[in-house]
Design goal:
Elements lengths: L1 E3 L2 E3 L4 H9 L6 E5 L6 H13 L4 E5 L8
Parallel strand pairs: 3-4
Antiparallel strand pairs: 1-2
Length: 69
C-alpha cells in the first residue's frame, strides 16, 4: 500500500499527486518510508515512479531503533 500522509493512493497516481501537492515544484525533497515487511524492490518501484515524475531529490527514511511506528 502506498500513502501520501494518511491517504492511500495507487502507484499510478503517485507522481501526479506529488506534483499537485508541490505545485509542480520538482526541486523539493521527498521522503519515502517503508516498514520492515516491504520488499526492497517495491520501495524501488515507488522511488522510480517519483523519479519518472521529474522529482530527483528522494530520501529514504529509516528507523535506527528497529521499531515500527
Amino acid at each position: 500500500r502506498i500513502y501520501i500522509k494518511k491517504q492511500r493512493i495507487t502507484l499510478d497516481e503517485l507522481a501526479a499527486r506529488i506534483g499537485a501537492i508541490s505545485g509542480e515544484n520538482k526541486d523539493i525533497r521527498l521522503f519515502v518510508r517503508g516498514d520492515t515487511s516491504v520488499d526492497y524492490g517495491r520501495i524501488m518501484q515507488v522511488v522510480g515512479e517519483i523519479n519518472a515524475g521529474g522529482f530527483t531529490k528522494v530520501a529514504l527514511i529509516t528507523d535506527p531503533s528497529g521499531k515500527q511506528k
